[in-house]
């Protein structure tokens, strides 16, 4: 009860501040739209897809997962600014729930991601993408869990390193192999065996496969529940670890 | 209101391959009474902020214990948080938020309901003369306004004790005087106020009692008047050339009327019973030895003299 209330308080403030900054909102929408308009047209020939709609079925889920990963991983920068302003310390002298300090922020990231995802989906509909609403909602759940995990991890790391200079290279180093090994931009079906072997150890690769299956209307595919389970477990682990960082001494 | 026994904290810092342990606070015993302004006086790095952060539950002590407003710091930090307010040195407001938003949110983090939080925010804004700027973003405030918002945040939940870390550092003289009035008003409202400062005049004028802190330890404790009285008599400052200082120090130290002598860059500092009778004797002695003196000054002991006799250093120099 207290956790829910505290989380809401933090979330409400974060959303308020987010909406106050129109530049951020614009960038958040502009970027994915660029991918959709400028990158996707290359895909039909590249993927040998019979139609543009087929190509979008493969590409859009990948793009959404990409946004979820990156949108989350770089949230730590905002937290470092808050640390510097003393806002985190001010919160920590109050009896507010430490998990709420994390969850309120991560939920803002999840909500802004879902808004982006909806905009992209709607745009893709204009390009003849068709997907069942039930499958789509499950895909959004997958995205929400990914964003929850990556933003929590990013906050936890930010509290540990406490500086942008350390956070930026660290997050890039993590994000790059994760991105390449998840088959986000091109499916790994084209990959040689050894590369697929490594990708099997990348949780995001499972998440991408699951999301693609959902966009293909293949709800019964094992990849769906496997992807959801893996991502859910990791999200819980990420949240627990990051909440611990909030409870620890922060300067 | 606050009682600590043997509070300790050390930090490990890494320089290259070596790890060094720095004892920031080495066993602090304190007693702070209800309704007083208690001051921690000491140079930067003396361990004032570390002690304050321990008392405010922000860092865990390595050893020792403390009772704060009746709650045990080690066993029940959550209860301590409910009973205290804390205002950090570096600020705590967000540029893009308004003072009112900050106050309402902060009150609500203490579990106060929405309507009551708004009422309290309005009252606090009024009390700190901030109503005019209440709905402007914090980044538009002056240093003094911002500091007032931060103090208002620290007491929005009506704590029994409020900790203020260097509340006037970086303020202009006028804002500083204003801040002293605000702090006295908190005491008048029945709050216990615990401040840190490295300003001698602030400790002297504002605090009911002070503890002088140096190298992680309390070097002296008492009211400013008591502490100054400990150094009985007067202080005579004798200005000398650097070359002449050692010889003059040896000569004067042997004089019966000199209780204590400290040498510094500017000359020597004598603690004597009666300055008026000491000065002619000092002049005669130095003249006799053929030593030129540049100046001679008489003054009543200040807190800096207390600091000097307790720690061997001047607070102004450190």
Give descriptors for this structure.
heterodimer; A: mainly alpha; 80% helix; B: alpha/beta; Rossmann fold; Alpha-Beta Plaits; four-stranded antiparallel β-sheet; 14 strands
Quick take:
The complex is a heterodimer of chains A (251) and B (318). By secondary structure, chain A is mostly helical.
Description of the structure:
The complex is a heterodimer of chains A (251) and B (318). Chain A is mainly alpha-helical and 251 residues long. Chain A has one domain (2-42, 50-247). Helices cover 80% and strands 0% of the residues of chain A. Chain A is built from twelve helices and no strands. In chain A, helix 7 (98-126) packs antiparallel against helix 12 (222-247) and helix 11 (203-215) crosses helix 12. The model of chain A has no long low-confidence stretch (mean pLDDT 87). Chain B is of the alpha/beta class. Chain B has a six-stranded mixed sheet with strand order 6-7-8-3-9-10, sandwiched between helices. Chain B folds into two domains: 2-228, Rossmann fold, CATH 3.40.50.300; 232-300, Lrp/AsnC effector binding domain/regulation of amino acid metabolism (RAM) domain (Alpha-Beta Plaits). Chain B has helices at 48-55, 77-83, 99-109, 114-127, 143-154, 173-188, 200-206, 224-230, 245-253, 275-288, 303-311, and strands at 2-15, 18-32, 37-41, 63-68, 71-72, 84-87, 161-165, 192-197, 209-214, 217-222, 234-240, 258-263, 267-272, 293-299. Chain B is 36% helix and 30% strand. The two termini of chain B are 31 Å apart. Chain B is elongated. Chain B contains eleven helices and 14 strands. The model of chain B has no long low-confidence stretch (mean pLDDT 87).
């Amino acid at each position: 009860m207290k956790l829910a209330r505290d989380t809401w308080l933090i979330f409400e403030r974060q959303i308020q501040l987010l909406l106050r900054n129109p530049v951020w909102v614009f960038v958040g929408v502009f970027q994915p739209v660029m991918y959709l308009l400028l990158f996707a047209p290359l895909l039909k020939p590249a993927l040998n897809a019979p139609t543009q709609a087929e190509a979008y079925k493969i590409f859009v889920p990948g793009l959404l997962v990409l946004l979820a990963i990156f949108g989350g991983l770089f949230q730590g920068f905002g937290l470092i600014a808050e640390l510097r302003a003393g806002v985190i310390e001010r919160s920590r002298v109050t009896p507010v729930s430490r998990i709420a300090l994390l969850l309120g922020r991560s939920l803002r990231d999840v909500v802004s991601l879902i808004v982006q995802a909806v905009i992209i989906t709607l745009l893709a509909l204009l390009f003849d993408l068709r997907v069942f609403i039930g499958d789509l909602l499950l895909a959004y759940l997958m995205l929400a869990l990914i964003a929850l995990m990556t933003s929590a991890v990013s906050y936890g790391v930010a509290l540990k390193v406490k500086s942008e200079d350390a956070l930026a290279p660290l997050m890039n180093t993590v994000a790059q192999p994760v991105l390449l090994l998840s088959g986000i931009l091109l499916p790994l079906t084209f990959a040689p065996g050894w590369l697929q072997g490594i990708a099997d150890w990348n949780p995001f690769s499972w998440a991408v496969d699951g999301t693609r299956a959902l966009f293909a209307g293949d709800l019964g595919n094992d990849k769906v529940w496997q992807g959801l389970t893996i991502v859910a477990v990791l999200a819980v682990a990420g949240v627990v670890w990051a909440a611990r960082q909030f409870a620890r001494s922060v300067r | 209101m606050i009682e600590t026994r043997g509070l300790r904290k050390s930090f490990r810092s890494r320089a290259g391959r070596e790890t060094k342990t720095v004892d920031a606070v080495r066993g602090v015993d304190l007693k702070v009474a209800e309704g007083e302004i208690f001051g921690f006086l000491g140079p930067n790095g003396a361990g004032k902020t570390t002690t304050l952060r321990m008392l405010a539950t922000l860092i865990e002590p390595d050893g020792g214990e403390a009772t704060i407003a009746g709650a045990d710091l080690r066993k029940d930090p959550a209860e301590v948080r409910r009973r205290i307010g804390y205002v950090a040195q570096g600020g705590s407001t967000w540029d893009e938020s308004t003072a009112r938003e900050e106050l309402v949110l902060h009150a609500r983090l203490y579990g106060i309901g929405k309507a009551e939080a708004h009422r309290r925010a309005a009252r606090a804004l009024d009390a700190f003369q901030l109503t005019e700027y209440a709905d402007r973003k914090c980044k538009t405030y002056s240093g003094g306004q911002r500091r007032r918002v931060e103090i208002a945040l620290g007491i929005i939940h009506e704590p029994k004790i409020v900790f203020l870390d260097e509340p006037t550092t970086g303020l202009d003289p006028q804002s500083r005087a204003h801040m002293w009035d605000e702090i006295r008003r908190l005491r008048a409202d029945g709050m216990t106020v615990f401040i840190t400062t490295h300003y001698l005049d602030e400790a002297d004028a504002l605090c009911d009692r002070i503890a002088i802190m140096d190298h992680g330890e309390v070097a002296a404790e008492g009211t400013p008047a008591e502490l100054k009285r400990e150094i009985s008599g007067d202080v005579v400052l004798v200005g000398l050339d650097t070359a002449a200082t050692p010889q003059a120090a040896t000569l004067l130290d042997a004089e019966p009327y000199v209780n204590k002598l400290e040498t510094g860059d500017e000359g020597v500092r004598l603690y004597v019973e009666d300055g008026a009778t000491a000065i002619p004797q000092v002049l005669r002695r130095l003249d006799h030895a053929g030593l030129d003196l540049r100046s001679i000054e008489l003054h009543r002991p200040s807190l800096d003299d207390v600091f000097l006799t307790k720690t061997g250093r001047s607070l102004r120099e450190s």
